[in-house]
C-alpha cells in the first residue's frame, strides 16, 4: 500500500501532463484551423493579382529581349509581320505560364501562409482578423478601393503633370543629341 501511495503523485502528474498536452494539441488544432481559414481568405483576395504579377514578371524579360533583337536584326519593312507572329507565340507562352502559376497559387497558399500565421499571430488575433475580413464593413471598404485609388492617382497626376512633361521634353532632347551623335547625323524624326 505504501508503494502505491508513493507512485500515486507520479501518476497524477502524468495524467495532468497528458491532459495539458491534449489541451495544447486541441488548442494548436484550433489555431491551425484559424490559420488555414485566414490563408483561404488571403488566397481569394490576393491570389488572382499574384498570378497576374508573377506571369508578367515571366513575360516581361522575354518581351524586352525579343523586341530588342527584332529591332536589331529584322529589316524595318518586315518588323510588323514578324511582331505579329511573335505576339501570337508570346500570347501562347503567357497563357500557359499563367495557368501553371495560377494552379500553384492555389496549391501553395496554405503551405506557405499557415506557418507564418501560426508563428506571427495569436489565436485571438486571427479570430479578430477573420471576423473583420468576413464583415460587411470590410466588404464595403474593399469595394471603395478602385474609386479611392483612382481619386488618389488623379491627384498625383494633376500635381506632377507639368514636371513630368518637362522631364519628357528634357529626356527627348538629350536622347536626340545622343542618338544623333551616335548615328553620325541628325536624330530621327519624332514619331
TrEMBL record:
This protein's UniProt keywords: Signal
PROSITE patterns, A to Z: PROKAR_LIPOPROTEIN
Record-linked Pfam families: DUF2059
Residues of the signal peptide: 1-26
Residues covered by the DUF2059 domain: 110-154
Name under which the protein is recorded: DUF2059 domain-containing protein
Organism field: Ottowia testudinis
Lineage: Bacteria, Pseudomonadati, Pseudomonadota, Betaproteobacteria, Burkholderiales
Amino acid at each position: 500500500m505504501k508503494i502505491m501511495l508513493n507512485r500515486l503523485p507520479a501518476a497524477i502528474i502524468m495524467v495532468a501532463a497528458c491532459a495539458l498536452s491534449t489541451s495544447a494539441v486541441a488548442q494548436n488544432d484550433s489555431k491551425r484551423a484559424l490559420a488555414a481559414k485566414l490563408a483561404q481568405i488571403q488566397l481569394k483576395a490576393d491570389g488572382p493579382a499574384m498570378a497576374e504579377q508573377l506571369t508578367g514578371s515571366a513575360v516581361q524579360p522575354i518581351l524586352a529581349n525579343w523586341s530588342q533583337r527584332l529591332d536589331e536584326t529584322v529589316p524595318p519593312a518586315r518588323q510588323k509581320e514578324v511582331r505579329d507572329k511573335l505576339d501570337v507565340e508570346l500570347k501562347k507562352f503567357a497563357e500557359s505560364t499563367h495557368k501553371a502559376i495560377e494552379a500553384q497559387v492555389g496549391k501553395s497558399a496554405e503551405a506557405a501562409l499557415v506557418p507564418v500565421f501560426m508563428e506571427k499571430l495569436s489565436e485571438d488575433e486571427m479570430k479578430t482578423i477573420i471576423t473583420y475580413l468576413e464583415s460587411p464593413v470590410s466588404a464595403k471598404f474593399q469595394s471603395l478601393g478602385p474609386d479611392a485609388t483612382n481619386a488618389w492617382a488623379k491627384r498625383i497626376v494633376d500635381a506632377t503633370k507639368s514636371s513630368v512633361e518637362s522631364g519628357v521634353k528634357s529626356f527627348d532632347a538629350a536622347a536626340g543629341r545622343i542618338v544623333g551623335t551616335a548615328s553620325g547625323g541628325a536624330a530621327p524624326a519624332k514619331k
